[in-house]
Amino acid sequence: MARKGKTARRLVVGGATCMWSIGHTHHVLGGGRYEDCCETLVIRLFKASGPLRVSFTTGPGKLVPDGRYMPSGVVGTTDGRTLNLNEPGTVRALLDEALSRGWRPDDPPVEEMDGWSLFDVVAARRGAAPREQPAAAEPGNGNGGSSSTGTGL
């Protein structure tokens, strides 16, 4: 069954219920072009007023959905590591890291965190590894440095 677009999802952690949702913002340049894309994960304790906003803004080496190259809710780095913010396990890992850095879900003010400051720890926890660089062609090996896996990629 498909989810309703912007409806908050539920995550139960140690008997506490959290609600979470994902949003996207950008500046429209016109002609189908955008800049300053930002993917934001919002987590809050159920019926509490102090949400945590974890923002992933595009920048050098940082990839966020732009309508062309990255799927909605996926953030990553140019070395091939990605986090899918649509996965409850990723949300839980980001929540755990935010809590370890002092976020208090029962504190009323909105707390904002740069998602990229959490990215390395959470990506490692989730098993996101950098993409391996292709081997350089060695003279005389006969394969020109290409892979022999048969995947065609």
TrEMBL record:
<feature type="compositionally biased region" description="Low complexity">
    <location>
        <begin position="127"/>
        <end position="140"/>
    </location>
</feature>
<feature type="compositionally biased region" description="Gly residues">
    <location>
        <begin position="141"/>
        <end position="153"/>
    </location>
</feature>
<protein>
    <submittedName>
        <fullName>Uncharacterized protein</fullName>
    </submittedName>
</protein>
<feature type="region of interest" description="Disordered">
    <location>
        <begin position="127"/>
        <end position="153"/>
    </location>
</feature>
